[in-house]
Amino acid sequence: MADMLRLDRQAELRWLEVVVSSALIVLPIVLGLLAGQERAGLAVAMGAMLGSNVTRHGSARAQGEEIVLIALALFLACLVGVGIAGWGGWADLALWGVMTLAALCGNFDRIAALVCGRFIVFVVILTEMARQARHPHAMVVLVMAGGVAAACLVSVLGRGSPPSILPPRDIGLGAKAGRWVWSFRSLSSCQFPLRLSVLMALTLSMDALWPERHLLWAALTVALLCRRPLDPVPARASQRALGASLGVLLSCVFLFHDPSREEFMLFLTGLGVAGMVARKQNYMLYSMVTTPLIMILVGGKSIGESILVDRLIATIVGAGLVVVVNIVVARMIRSCENRISGPRGLDGRVPAIKRPHAVE
């Protein structure tokens, strides 16, 4: 509970970046409402929200690489989401295959891990958005416009901040390929694709069995919480579940009180600013704010009671599945390691008596 509620006081809060990032999300929706093109404004705002999560770097070259990686992940997610959204009952199977392949490709190197990690989150959101879009192909252009503009502006505003720690120099392509192939021989090396594949199979099966229940939200929860480092009981899972629950309660404003256009714009502005502030301070607060924001971006102004209940249940189920699968896979890895190297002591080391050749 302490980890869930703790604020990251070391995170630097730059108000100009907060204002610009939230304006890139709010202004397209407001302009779309005023022009009678609500869906177009939502698509641009969604791209801005996804593209604004830029890591700060000290050099212009590193910033340019970051923008290119975000744009690449967003473009691929748009193409896949729009392409499989109209497949009907096969869409969930195709989405599972694409995300499993992305998780495997992410083991290739650092750049592949960055692109595939963002792609996995982006493609779930954009697939759901494409299902409800009237013109899915036009959505690609609008989402990309918002995403690239947000990535460029936020990156420029981040200049002057302390440079991030540079990663080690990459090895050659042949060595990367050999290491990537060799990683499939070890359970600990391919545990992330295994966990993501199992989790997506479970959540997407639920969406296929009950398509009217909006259970793709459980897959989004899994995509957000399933990280490459294996943490059996991640604090983020509890933060996501509690934050989303509070976010659904916050969304009841649209259920029990039909807001005017001015009230809706004010509420949306508050969500945008609060989301950008909470992003670097506390993940639970960020989840609480972004839950209604994402629901608005995906579904528009009208949020029904069934959608609120379904997404609350889907979030709790998705977070619970992440914890269960993480524990099972962690025990499998520990069992494999003990089988290979023998029993370990309390400090995790193999006792010397079990390895006589090492003593000799």
UniProtKB/TrEMBL annotation:
Keyword check for Transmembrane = yes
Tell me which stretches of the chain form a coiled coil. none
Q: Where in the cell is it found?
A: Membrane
Q: Which Pfam families match?
A: FUSC_2
All copies of domain Integral membrane bound transporter, residue ranges: 209-325
A cellular-component GO term for this protein: membrane
Q: Which residues cross the membrane?
A: 12-34, 67-87, 93-126, 138-158, 283-300, 312-333
Signal peptide stretch: none
The UniProt record lists the keyword Membrane: yes
Major location category of this protein: membrane
How is this protein situated with respect to the membrane?
A: Multi-pass membrane protein
Alphabetically sorted, this entry's keywords are: Membrane, Transmembrane, Transmembrane helix
Report the protein name in the record: FUSC family protein
From what organism does this protein derive?
Gluconacetobacter tumulicola
